[in-house]
Amino acid sequence: MTTLSQVLQALIPPRPASLVNPPPPWLLNPQTIYLEPAVEQLARGQQILERFPDAERILVDSHWKIPGLFGFEGNVGDWNKIKRDVLVLGVKKSLRAEPNSRSSDFIAPSHANGCAMACSYCYVPRQKGYANPISVFVNIEQIAAYLTRHATKLGWKAEPSQIDPIYWVYDIGCNSDCSVDAMVSDNVRDLVSLFRTLPTAKATFATKFVNRDLLSYDPQGKTRIRLSLMPQRMAKVVDVRTSPIAERIGIINDLHEAGYEVHLNFSPVIYYEGWQADYRELFDQLAQVLKPEVKDQLGAEIIFLTHNEKLHQINLGWHPKGEELLWNPELQDTKYSQMGGRNLRYKRGLKAGLVEEFNALLNKHLPECRIRYAF
Ligand code: SF4
Hints:
The protein starts with a helix and ends with a strand. Helix content is 35%, strand content 20%. By secondary structure, it is α/β, with parallel strands linked by helices. The protein is built from 15 helices and 18 strands. The strands form 4 sheets. An 8-stranded mixed sheet has the order 4-5-9-10-11-13-14-18. The protein has a 5-stranded mixed sheet with strand order 2-1-3-8-6. A 3-stranded antiparallel sheet has the order 15-17-16. It has one domain (4-374): Alpha-Beta Horseshoe (pyruvate-formate lyase- activating enzyme), CATH 3.80.30. Helix 2 (43-51) links the parallel strand 1 and strand 2. Helix 1 (4-11) packs across helix 7. The protein is globular and about 55 Å long. Iron/sulfur cluster (SF4) binds at residues 115, 117-119, 122, 124, 176-177, 208, 242.
């Protein structure tokens, strides 16, 4: 059993701020840091503040309630500027691992939310208002201790599942992109270290950014990275501010060699004229680049696009070109969520055929890749 002192050993000593690779300024260059008062008292908070000494610091009562930043429609025009110029630091108060299905067994309590990238289908802004710059939670020791207790209490998984044959899997990147978060602080590094010590559990996160610093984290097979891929032609329009697809493919072998399990996340799959030829090309590229040992451990999740009416309206204010691909009501069915939101998915008859066609293409061009789930 992993004790709390082992957990803390995995987290200590914190690296000096200067050892964390800085984010490229076009992506994240904080001019303003909103912070809760407790942030300055905690080592992780101090590390981050030391990294961005020139940013103006503004104290706020809560990372959720920042006047003029969240829930303010007038920010739509400054969408990407806010993502680049603003950082929020807070303390995660409610620590809970939420049960999940498909991509992981649990969603770990967030070490961050929001994102410096700006994929136009992203659901994060739906939960967090109109501007969603990165918020980092600096009480990482509490988050790690909670996860240790949670995993220890569970014991071993009783039976294998498509999520993982052996381990309980915790998603540590549901509300942010860990590869970018890792350029702001050592939170991701600490969690990768933590899962190395938890005998029954594994971490996972999906990413659209290439951060080579991750290669030095030594995960020893206990973190699964899901590289999120789509044809570059589409990514160029909707995956705003992310790494190009070829770069993402280019790090897969290295991540595996560095000790990560690496899977593929085809999400969202967007239907358009000629999508099959573009995906065929993408699968062929993967087949050429990936080493046999990487292919042997490869799994994929396939998720066709779900769009949302409110998000569509917001996106029209900053990125209407993306909406030409995402918003297609004549091909999409409407479903109202519990929160009253109007979600759109490809019509049932159409989608069943698309899923089948996608799976057949992947099986043909990258036969080693196990399809974990597709919908
Ligand atoms: S990288 Fe992920 S979290 Fe960031 S904007 Fe894109 S979908 Fe959202």
